[in-house]
Amino acid sequence: MRLLGMESLTVCEYSLREGLIVDWMLNHGLIVDRLRFQSSIRQRNTLKIAQKYQVNMEYSERVAAWALHLFDQTQGV
Q1: Distances 9 to 1, 18, 21, 25 between C-alpha atoms, Å
Q2: What number of CA atoms fall less than 13 Å from residue 37's CA on the CB side?
Q3: Domains in the chain, number
Q4: Does residue 53 fall inside a structural domain?
């Protein structure tokens, strides 16, 4: 809120995506790299949901690493 110079915020009860805020910040020069900023939001939200549903993070990380390994093997095919 300090970064945006705002004193209040109205929260949408219909789950308005943070993408609107990111677009506004881009248009006003407050951030430069949309993908880097949105990626960190996406990662935080994903980890928060995983924690809420008590996901086995160690196992999930192994599955993710294996999926990336398989994907990497398809490059150049």
Answers
A1: 8, 13, 11, 15
A2: 14
A3: 1
A4: yes
pTM for the structure as a whole: 0.43
pLDDT digits (tens, 9 = 90+) for 18-74: 667 777 888 888 877 766 666 666 777 888 889 999 999 999 999 999 999 999 999
Residue with tokens 């939001």: 41
Please give the residue range of the domain that contains residue 68.
19-74
Report yes or no on 3 lying in a domain: no
HEC profile for the chain?
CCCCCCCCCCCCCCCCCCHHHHHHHHHCCCCCCHHHHHHHHHHHHHHHHHHHCCCCHHHHHHHHHHHHHHHHHHCCC
pLDDT for residue 7 is more than 50: yes
